[in-house]
């Protein structure tokens, strides 16, 4: 076996990686790659047995915005091992390689672990941290500017322009340079939940469940007035945010966020991860 990385230009290794990701997680990277969204900021570090990818730890290079300041962040994801190659220490070896490669180069390293591996990442210096979700109550049926439902077949260029030129959604806590991850979510998860707010020139991503809106993202190339967005969401009385809002004109309730698994963070010397924040859903790898 050999350790390989930066191989998305190698068709054989890339397709083997994609097959492993599909087999383990059901992740389909094909259209994401074909449309050019697998950029230089997404890097798999893998063990290859010949031309077959058998274990992997990927990194996403992005930035945190914390209280208006930018910090280098590294999100780890797609940690996987082929069933035939497990219990050989391959994932641990790749994790140590990544940590060595990026030691001192990033302010924060972090990942989202599922419930079955919560005891794995503390061995590498990661600390489990609690997230918090914000919600607000509003008066139903306020009306406002109409939203236009987007279709990928017709509106992909518009979506790309806004995603690649976006400004951080929150100065309190958000991410930047995460366009590749965001486009994966748009292509594979939220295809039927994309809307355009022409007045704010924003892509709005939300679902409605039991009279409440799950607001996943507001993507724009300039700061928006969230109240203008909320006013056009229709007959609802509650909005739950899947990012950290910082519009002081709204009254928020903040409660611990429960996910299937946990957020783990490894901090640089002298740095603290902010409390009472929610990592943006569309930046999760």
UniProtKB/TrEMBL annotation:
Source superkingdom: Bacteria
Entry protein name: GNAT family N-acetyltransferase
Gene3D superfamilies per UniProt: 3.40.630.30
CDD domains: NAT_SF
GO molecular function annotations of the record: acyltransferase activity, transferring groups other than amino-acyl groups
The N-acetyltransferase domain, residue ranges: 4-154
Endpoints of the signal sequence: none
InterPro entries per UniProt: Acyl_CoA_acyltransferase, GNAT_dom
């Amino acid at each position: 076996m050999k350790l390989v990385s930066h191989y998305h230009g190698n068709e054989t290794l890339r397709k083997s990686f994609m097959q492993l990701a599909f087999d383990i997680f059901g992740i389909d990277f094909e259209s994401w790659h074909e449309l050019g969204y697998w950029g230089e900021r997404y890097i798999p570090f893998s063990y290859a047995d010949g031309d077959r990818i058998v274990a992997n730890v990927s990194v996403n290079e992005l930035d945190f915005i914390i209280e208006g300041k930018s910090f280098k962040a590294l999100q780890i994801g797609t940690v996987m091992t082929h069933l035939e190659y497990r219990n050989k220490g391959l994932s641990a070896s790749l994790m140590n390689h990544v940590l060595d490669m990026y030691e001192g180069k990033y302010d924060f390293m972090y990942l989202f672990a599922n419930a079955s591996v919560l005891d794995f990442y503390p061995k590498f210096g990661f600390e489990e941290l609690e997230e918090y979700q914000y919600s607000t109550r509003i008066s139903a049926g306020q009306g406002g500017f109409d939203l236009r439902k987007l279709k990928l077949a017709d509106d992909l260029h518009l979506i790309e322009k806004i995603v690649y030129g976006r400004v951080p959604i929150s100065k309190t806590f958000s991410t930047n340079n995460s366009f590749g991850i965001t486009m994966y979510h748009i292509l594979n998860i939220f295809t039927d939940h994309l809307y355009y707010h022409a007045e704010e020139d924003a892509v709005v991503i939300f679902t409605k469940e039991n009279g409440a809106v799950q607001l996943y993202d507001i993507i724009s190339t300039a700061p928006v007035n969230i109240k203008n967005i909320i006013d056009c969401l229709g007959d609802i009385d509650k909005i739950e945010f899947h990012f950290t809002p910082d519009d002081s004109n709204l009254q928020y309730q903040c409660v611990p966020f429960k996910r299937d698994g946990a957020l783990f963070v490894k901090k640089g010397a002298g740095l603290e991860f902010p409390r009472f924040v929610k990592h943006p859903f569309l930046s999760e790898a």
